TrEMBL record:
Domain F-box: 35-96
Top-level division of the source organism's lineage: Eukaryota
Protein name: F-box domain-containing protein
Gene3D superfamilies assigned: 1.20.1280.50, Ribonuclease Inhibitor
InterPro entries given in the database record: F-box_dom, LRR_dom_sf
C-alpha cells in the first residue's frame, strides 16, 4: 500500500515538473530576447563567433583542465530557441578545431553541413583528434574544405598517426585556399601530388620546420602568400625559378636554416615581384644569399624584414646594401630618408644588432617598412663596426626626427661609429635610450663637437662647438637602473652608475645654454631619490611607473 502511494505521488510530481517546464517556456516566449527575429539573432551570433571564438585552451578557472573554452557557443545554452537558431545556421560551425577534441570536431563537421569550413588541429594530441582529421580530409568532406592548418608542435607518441594523416592528403581539394603545415613533415619531404594535384583555388601555402620541398610541386606556384621554413640546405636557384612563376606573390617569407653547398653562380636575370607587399628573409650569409637578393626586384614600398647571421666582416657591406635597397650612387641625397629609427645593440657574447626603420611619418604605430637584424657568429670585432657603420650609412639621416637606442653591452670600440652617425642627425627631436649599456651614449650627449661651416650658406661662418642633437625636445630614459647597478651579464665585469651619468649630462648641457626641455623616465629602478636633482636641470620632468629594485 505504501509503495503504491509513493509511486502515485512520484507520477504526480513528474507531471507537475513537466507543467512547470511548459509554463517557464511560455514565459520565456514572451521575453524581449525571444521576440528577436531569426535574422537578427543569426547576425548577433556571427559577431560573437568573431569576437569570442572557441579555443583549444582549457576553460579559465577550471582546475582540472578538462573543460574547453566554448566561447560564443555558450550563448546557445540560454534557451531552446537560441540553440535552434544557431543549429540552423551552418556557417557558424565552420571553424573546426576549436575546441580541439575529437567529439566536438565531429559534431561541428556535421553542423557545418555543406558550407566551406576551416580545419585546425594538432595531430599528435590524441587518437580521437587524429580520427576527426582523417574524417575531415576524406573524400566526403575534402571537397568543401577552405583552410587546412595542421601542426605537430607538441611532444607526443602518435608519430605513426602523423604519417597516416599525410598519406591521406590525396583527394581533390577544389575549395582549398590556404594550406599550413607546421612541423608536420619533419624529415619527410612533402609529396608533389598531394590532393591529386587539384587545388585550383590555393593561394596561401606555409610549411615550417621541414627538411625540404619538391620544387616542381603545384602548391608552390601561382600563390599570393608563400612561407618556406627549411632547415636543410636547398638550392636558391630553384627557389628563384619558383618565384618567377608567381608574379602575383604579395607576401613572401623564407627561413633558410643552413648554408647551401657551393653551387654554380645563380643565373643572371632579375625576378620581378611587382605585387609584393611584405618580404621576410632569415638566412646565413653566404655568396648564394647575396646573389639571391641581387636577382630580386621588389617594389620600394614593400615591407622588408631581414635576419642575417655572418661569420666574417667582408660580406657585410654588400649584403646590407642589398637589404636596405641602397641605391648605388655616391650622392647621399639618393639614399632613403627615414623619419624614425630604432637601433638595438645586445650583448650576448656575440654581436647582435637589430635595426628598424620607418620611411613614413604616419606609419609609426605599425610594423616598420624595414626590419634588419645582424648577428655576427664570430668574435672578430671588425665585423661589428663594419655592420653598424654600413647600416647607418645606408640612409640619409639628416631629416631623422625620432631615434631610439637600446644597448646592453659595453664594447666601446663600436660606439665611435655611433658618434659619427649622431653628428649627422641634427633634426632629431625625440630620443629614447634604453638598457644598461647607454652610459657611453649619455657621455656623447654631454660633450661638444666641432661643427664645420655650411658650404652652401651665403653668410660667412666659421667652425664652432656644439652639442649633438641641437633640436632635441624630449629625452626618454626607460628600463634603466638609476641607482648603483650590478653587472648586466657574465660578459661584463662592472656596470656604471647611470643615474650619475644622466645627472652630469643634464647639468653640463644646461650650464652651456642647451638644456634638455623634457625628460621622461619610465620603468627605471631606484629613481625616486634622484628626481629632485634631475628636475633642477630640465624644464619638464615626467616619471611613470618608477619602482624600487
Amino acid at each position: 500500500m505504501v509503495n503504491c502511494t509513493r509511486d502515485m505521488l512520484l507520477t504526480e510530481l513528474k507531471a507537475i515538473q513537466h507543467l512547470v517546464t511548459l509554463t517557464v517556456a511560455r514565459v520565456n516566449d514572451l521575453s524581449i530576447t525571444t521576440r528577436l527575429p531569426v535574422e537578427v539573432l543569426t547576425h548577433v551570433f556571427s559577431i560573437l563567433a568573431e569576437c569570442d571564438p572557441p579555443s583549444p585552451e582549457p576553460l579559465k578557472g577550471d582546475r582540472s583542465g578538462d573543460k574547453a573554452h566554448l566561447g560564443w557557443i555558450t550563448a546557445t545554452h540560454v534557451c531552446r530557441r537560441w540553440r535552434h537558431v544557431a543549429l540552423s545556421a551552418p556557417a557558424l560551425w565552420t571553424n573546426i578545431g576549436a575546441p580541439q577534441t575529437g567529439p566536438w570536431m565531429d559534431e561541428m563537421l556535421a553542423r557545418s553541413k555543406q558550407v566551406p569550413f576551416t580545419l585546425s588541429a594538432c595531430i599528435t594530441r590524441d587518437h580521437k583528434v587524429c580520427d576527426a582529421v582523417l574524417k575531415a580530409v576524406s573524400a566526403n568532406y575534402m571537397s568543401r574544405m577552405k583552410d587546412l592548418h595542421l601542426e605537430d608542435i607538441e611532444e607526443g607518441s602518435l608519430d605513426d598517426r602523423r604519417l597516416e594523416v599525410l598519406a591521406n592528403l590525396k583527394h581533390p581539394a577544389p575549395m582549398l585556399e590556404s594550406l599550413t603545415l607546421d612541423d608536420v613533415t619533419k624529415s619527410k619531404i612533402l609529396r608533389p601530388h598531394i590532393f591529386a594535384r587539384k587545388m585550383p583555388r590555393l593561394h596561401r601555402f606555409i610549411i615550417r620546420e621541414c627538411d625540404g620541398v619538391h620544387w616542381g610541386a603545384p602548391y608552390l606556384r601561382n600563390v599570393t602568400d608563400l612561407e618556406l621554413d627549411i632547415g636543410e640546405p636547398f638550392s636558391l636557384a630553384k627557389l628563384l625559378a619558383v618565384l618567377k612563376e608567381s608574379p602575383l606573390l604579395e607576401n613572401l617569407r623564407i627561413i633558410r636554416g643552413a648554408v647551401s653547398p657551393r653551387e654554380r653562380p645563380l643565373p643572371r636575370g632579375n625576378v620581378s615581384l611587382f605585387s609584393l607587399k611584405t618580404f621576410s628573409l632569415h638566412s646565413c650569409v653566404d655568396t648564394p644569399c647575396v646573389e639571391f637578393l641581387d636577382n630580386l626586384t621588389i617594389p620600394p614600398t614593400a615591407r622588408k624584414e631581414f635576419e642575417f647571421k655572418a661569420e666574417n666582416a667582408e660580406v657585410a657591406p654588400r649584403i646590407i646594401s642589398l637589404a636596405t635597397s641602397f641605391v648605388k650612387t655616391a650622392g647621399i641625397a639618393s639614399r632613403p630618408a627615414p623619419s624614425k629609427m630604432q637601433f638595438n645593440r645586445m650583448d650576448s657574447g656575440r654581436c647582435d644588432i637589430a635595426m628598424l626603420v620607418w620611411l613614413e611619418e604616419n606609419d609609426a604605430d605599425v610594423r616598420p617598412q624595414l626590419s634588419l637584424r645582424w648577428t655576427s657568429v664570430s668574435n672578430y670585432p671588425a665585423a661589428d663596426n663594419i655592420a653598424a657603420g654600413q647600416l647607418l650609412d645606408s640612409f640619409d639621416v639628416r631629416k631623422l626626427t625620432d631615434l631610439s637606442i637600446t644597448a646592453e653591452g659595453f664594447r666601446y670600440a663600436l660606439y665611435d661609429t655611433f658618434h659619427n652617425a649622431f653628428s649627422k642627425m641634427s633634426a632629431v627631436r625625440d630620443l629614447t635610450l634604453k638598457g644598461r649599456g647607454i652610459d657611453l651614449f649619455l657621455g656623447i650627449l654631454e660633450i661638444t663637437h666641432t661643427v664645420a661651416p655650411d658650404p652652401h650658406s651665403r653668410q660667412m661662418s666659421t667652425a664652432r662647438s656644439a652639442f649633438l642633437f641641437p633640436n632635441l625636445e624630449r629625452l626618454r630614459i626607460t628600463s634603466v637602473p638609476l641607482g648603483k647597478a650590478k653587472p648586466a651579464s657574465r660578459y661584463v665585469s662592472w656596470a656604471p652608475h647611470l643615474g650619475e651619468s644622466l645627472l652630469s649630462m643634464l647639468e653640463t648641457r644646461k650650464a652651456l645654454g642647451e638644456p634638455v626641455p623634457t625628460l621622461v623616465i619610465t620603468l627605471c629602478d631606484d629613481c625616486e631619490a634622484l628626481l629632485p636633482k634631475l628636475s633642477e636641470h630640465v624644464e619638464n620632468l615626467q616619471c611613470d611607473t618608477c619602482s624600487d629594485a
